[in-house]
Structures are given as structure tokens and as C-alpha cells.
Amino acid sequence: MKERAMDVAILIFDGVTALDAVGPYQVLSLVPGARVRWVAAEPGPKRCDGGMVLVAMEPLDAVPHPEVIVVPGGLDVRPAMADPRVRAWLTAAHATARWTTSVCSGALILAASGLLAGRRATTHWAVMEQLGKLGARPVAERVVEEGRVITAAGVSAGIDMALTLAARLAGPVTAQAVQLAIEYSPEPPFSSGSLATSPPEVVSAAGTLLLEAIRDEAARRPAA
Amino acid sequence: MKERAMDVAILIFDGVTALDAVGPYQVLSLVPGARVRWVAAEPGPKRCDGGMVLVAMEPLDAVPHPEVIVVPGGLDVRPAMADPRVRAWLTAAHATARWTTSVCSGALILAASGLLAGRRATTHWAVMEQLGKLGARPVAERVVEEGRVITAAGVSAGIDMALTLAARLAGPVTAQAVQLAIEYSPEPPFSSGSLATSPPEVVSAAGTLLLEAIRDEAARRPAA
Lengths: 224, 224
Hints:
Shape of chain A: globular
Largest interface: A-B, 71 and 71 residues
Number of strands of chain A: 11
Order of helices and strands of chain A: EHEEEEEHHEHEHEEEHHH
Helix content of chain A: 25-40%
Strand content of chain A: 15-25%
Oligomer: homodimer
């Protein structure tokens, strides 16, 4: 039996980090009744960092009242933070959404639209300080739920966030079934998934990798 | 300092499961020197299960000798298993690749091309038996490395596989740095990520979700 479609809007933009968006997509598209819609200020193909392409099929105003908003991050989210179309859509959509969520530096986009003022929220470790400057109360947790807003830490944390959200939307048995369907029983080969558990040489190497990726991304961006 | 580009070919097709491909992409695109290329028997947009779109920018013969092959799965991989272009490319590319890998039911595609004959290999729990019928020796492990072939369990296991591979390609410090860059310190909200840890009602609900998704996917497929 199909329930009434529940719109889940994933906002993308040039420079989005693919896994930030696709982790939640894979979880939420399995929730019965959910209809995931990829939206952007300008629909069409969006260049992800690393070079792959995601496609936004619809403009923002095609989905003015999603039940769920997902805002992924990217290596440089300043253009998305500053885009008045993104801000206007987020503000209005959040007013009627059941859940507004972010992954990674997507929290900075929520914050730039005023949605995290005074709220506990998390983001990628590399921009945690910046999140505080934008008015949120940054906490180094993997998934932070406060009122109708759920924020996730960096990149892969979107999967954990989306499973938490699936339980809110469809109950714990369905959320567990989704977890089993995507066989999410992680066995990371190392324990270096967080700042707290990484030795200094790994933190330093990760900083170098991210800076290199930001440089590559800037080189790929068309001149304004 | 940039090293010589190391081609990583991700094979996609209509019906591919997005996270199977994007998990490894996100990891491998951060490995210094790696150049991830999305290939398909027919380049262009590919419909993923759940409705999103991934784009294969290049035909198979544009990347005849990748260093790394990644074969994701999907809800119904029979068309990819039977495609003579896929079989010919996989057989030839595997002959010169450093690593040939699969995620989820992508293992069935490797097996159909004869690359898993007599080899220990893993796949999604729902098709483990089928993998055995195709001549592999199925083992219920998350990541199985045998010779130059690495197979991963269902969907999300591609992230674990790719980090294991990153360590082989670039050493453990770089692999750990990638893990930190994507903040892969998983905290699944439930323990239902594997058959062994899921109660019967969750296994049953997961089966229903997958059958429903297969039906949706079949309905979306254009008539042949």
C-alpha cells in the first residue's frame, strides 16, 4: 500500500560534496511514501567536488513545501550561502517543513539563512568554528537534533542522520529495515574517523588533502 | 606535488544503486593522483534506483586500462550481467588492472564475466546464494580481498572497501587522512546493519522494502 507522497527536497549546487547528498538519498528513498526531489536555484547538472555530476531536476519553487529539507555541504559553500534564492527558499520552506536537516558544511548554509540562530548544531570538524561565528552553538557530536532541525557532522554522517530521521518519519522497525537493506554495519579499517581519535600526522595529512581538494575545486570553477 | 594520474573507472548502468558507486567515489577521489572516471556501455545519464540520475561521461573504450575498476550493484543487475560490451570490457580491463572491485550486487556482474570463478567473494546478503551459483565462493564478510580482487557487501560497504583500497594505493596514513576528511566515524542509530544482528521482524520488513523497490524500479524501466 502506497502512502501519500512525502516530499524530501535535497538542495544541490555547484561544488556540492556528492556523498553528503547521496548518503541521505539512499536512506530516505527507501522510506515508504517518500519521494526524493533534487532541487537547485538553477536546475540542471551540478559539478560535485572531485568532478562527478549530480542533476537537479527541478527549480526551488517547484517544491515550496517539502516535508523534509536536506542541505548537503561542499568544499566552498559561500556561493550557496550568499544566494538570495537559496535563502528565500530555505526560510519559507523551513516554516512549513516537518524536518530541516543538513550534512557537513550544509549547516553553514542553514546558518546563513538564520535557521540555526542560538541552536545547538554540528558540522564538519574543519568548519566547526565558522559555524559558531554564524550564530549557532556548535557541538562536536555526530548527529544533533534540536526541535525540527537535525544537523550531521562531516560527509558520511549524513547516513547516520538520515537513519535517525527515518525512525522519526516511519518508526524504528522501518528505519532498521532500511539500515539492513543498505547493509549499514560499518567496519572502518582505521579509527581515524574523528579528530579525537586521529594521530597528529593524520590530522595534518587530512588538512593537506582538503586544501588540495579546495584548490582543485577553485580551478574547476568557471570565472564569474 | 601531483603524481601521474591513476585512472579509477566506475562502471554504471540504468538501475545502479547510487550509494554503491558514490561511497567509493568520495573516498577514491580524495586519494592523491587518482582520477575517477564514470564509464558506461552507453555514456549519458543513468537512472539510479529511487529515481536519481548519475552521469557516465565516457564510453567503456575510453578507459581500456584503468588502474582500478569499481563495479557497483543495483536492484536488478541482469541487464548489466548479460551485456556483451560490459563483459568484454571487464575481462580486458581486469587483465591489466591493479585492482578490480565490486560493491553489493556488483559482484554478480564480476562473476558473470568469469572474474570470480573459485574466488572467495562477498555481496549483498539478499543475493549471496546467487553469487555461489555463479561460481564464486561466497563468504558473509564485509570486505573480502583475494588477490587483485576486492568485493564488498551491500551498498554502504563500498565505503569500507574503498578505504581498504586507499591504504593499498596510497599507504595507511593517506587512507586514514581520507577517512578523517569524510569524517567516517559511523554511529548507526540501530544495530540492524547485518542479517546476524537483525530481529526477524526487521529482516522481514527489509525484504518487503527491497521487493517494493524492485517493483518500482521495474515500473520505471522503459519497455524493451
